[in-house]
Design brief:
Elements: H1 3-17, H2 19-30, H3 33-47, H4 53-63, E1 69-71, H5 82-85, E2 94-96, H6 101-110, E3 122-124, E4 129-132, H7 139-147, H8 156-165, H9 169-178, E5 181-183, E6 188-194, H10 195-200, H11 209-218, H12 231-260, H13 277-286, H14 291-300, H15 304-319, H16 326-352
Length: 357
Amino acid sequence: MPPLLVGSILLLRVMQSDPIGEHALARFHELDPVDRTEVVVSVLDTLRASDHELVRQAAELRAEPPFPTAAMPAPLERAFDADRYAPALGLETTLVRRGSPRWKRVVRDLLRGHEPPRNRWSWDPAQRRLLAPPAPPPEEEVLAALIAGSWPDDGFLDAVGFGLLDDDAHMARIGAYFDHLYRDRLGRVYEDVTLYDVWNSQRRFEVSDVEAIAFLREIEGDRRTVSPIPTSRHDEIYRRIEEAFVRWRAYRVLREGLARRWSTPHAAPTPTFAAVAERLDQAWVLTRHEPSRMRVRLGGTPERKAFLAAVNVEALTYLGMTNPPEWWTEGWRLRETQPGALRRDTLEVLRLFRLLR
């Protein structure tokens, strides 16, 4: 679901089921733009001083990101350069804009109708930086989320969490490769549709020599193979790209799942972990919600099933105790009370601005 639509739904839910929130948002809507900004800035600043550890931690990250930030590159800058990797083809690169009929056909046929997200922060593994969406979420949606006890659904904390858990330079190079945009054999580059998206679709699709040569050079260090690639070598090269993708997907999916449940414990888990979200929660409690500890745990059991199994075994030890350690009970208390603390602190600022009257 598109982030703006999610924000709109959240806003509607606040207005329908929360009289206090509904009243505050109505008063907020009456303010002029400068005053609205002042309110939101004041709320976010106040959250940095929250007495709730997880709220304070996330607010600090939003205010002072632990990584450099940059604007999302223009679409054609996110595609491999045909003149550099396959000059003999003489491809004329063209951009297929999001929402155009051709773009929609590719999304329907290759991605099973699942449109790639946009207007969300993302993690750039190659440059170790955060990429900002073209536009931030509207201030009213930010405030609605905070009143409801959640952070804005803009992908920021997910991207930061992924970055803090991403510590493998070789996997980062593979991830950077699959973050490039998809190009068909006629040179058409599809806006927002990444190589990760198409390889993850498990559908048959065209692989341009540009992307094949880029893989051989950037991931395998092969400088001898040039375009046009003989047909007899296609299957071999595509198999190697697929094997790299499977490794990257396993690495990425586990870290994305953990990142989602880190600073927003009650966030909906990523689809892969919908049935085992509790394991991710247990992992964060076991590591005291510290990414540095989580990186160590991931390094010891990098494979997803082994990771979840090890977490389960260790968690069962504490679950079976009559008097578990204080850090164990405190970790669960923090996760359980985070939404309420976020809402409480937000409403307190709105009260000071006389928006609850």
